[in-house]
Predict the structure.
Amino acid sequence: MNASDENSLSGEVIDERSLLTVDELCRLCAVERTSIVEMVEEGVLSVELEFSVKLESTEWRFAGASLRRARTALRLQRDLEINLPGVALALDLLEQLEHLRRQLNLGRV
Amino acid sequence: MEFKDYYQVMGVARDATLGEIKQAYRRLARKFHPDVSKEKDAEARFKDLGEAYEVLKNPDKRAAYDALGKGPVPDWGGSEPRSRGFEGSGFGAAGGAAGGADYSEFFESLFGAAAHGRGAGSHGRGAATPESRDHHARVMLDLEASLLGGSRTFTLKMPELDAEGRLVERDRMLNVKIPKGVLAGQTIRLAGQGSSAGMPAGDLYLEVDFSPHPIYRVDGRDLYVELPVAPWEAALGASVQTPTPAGTVDLKVPAESHAGTKLRLKGRGIPATPPGDLYVVLTIALPPAVDAAAKAAYRAFADALPFNPRSSLGV
């Protein structure tokens, strides 16, 4: 599984320190800006605090973790035809479930 | 080629109404959606389900499917772009489908390979935009890749244009340097490594997940390890050896520890910025009472320590 480092590709990590603009998030999710704005309005995505929702959407910045959340939201919306408040609920519950599963795993020998 | 029983996939009777089919689809889609389901074969089941629904919800396609084995199969020529499925999302252990080119061979023999032909300019919601052929995939990493860094090889199914300019899916092998400290849920961006089916080539995004580790459990950037100690080590305190990602260290177990006591080794988790911690969770291992000497020792133990472990239960 380990290969020589010489021919391998290097990438950058999108993490919580990477701040994505609304246009970057649009490109990464292949959606129009209105979709991102809707997701913010419904609480699916949250804008980083120092870039308040009160600002124009072009000024918003999103933590790297928003990428996974936005893409999951779009898939759920598209595949299960859930509306955005439903998607927001599903994502929150999925997160709780993931947390509980981790706790359960931690308690297992 | 494998025959697909779409009715069986959806769990409906051959004379099911459109309403019943839709209902079955919704129920099973929620059950097997790869973002929701923990079933092992969820992705494959969801794909089959989407394909079955695509056929059975459409009266023409359903009639063509039902006519199978009853005569020549009509040539339907094409298929409308599919609105379901995971095109462009790239699910699965080593990536996944993109560009809508993920129908089964069986489906394509029935409805034509035109289902492939969405072309580089398609506007599928899950697909990349024509300007940038970005590609997203989810990859499973062993924890060591993040702990130590190093390269890993992935085989991803990625859309490419064939000689006739049609969008096809090909396996592509990629050797990727894993950034040390990468965490589950984070994404690695590889500039210019997206699909070659567009101009210019897009970027490749690898969403990281960890496969289960034999020793460590992962919670964000923190690691957990269960460390068995002997009853006397827990009761009296001891210095014991514990594994850490950086190698074995001596750990001081405080006196009067019990099962579940959690000891934190700061900064010894995943080497992210900031680094995570390693939590050592104690379990008490009992020496087996296999021979006369061990049994005698347990009896002496019982005589010396009057102890009711069930006092909190009132018995």
About this structure: The interface with chain B takes residues 1-5, 7-15, 17, 27-28, 30-31, 64-65, 67-68, 71-72, 74-76, 78-81, 90, 94, 101-102, 105-106, 109 of chain A (CB under 8 Å). Chain A has a mean pLDDT of 84. The two ends of chain A are 28 Å apart (CA to CA).
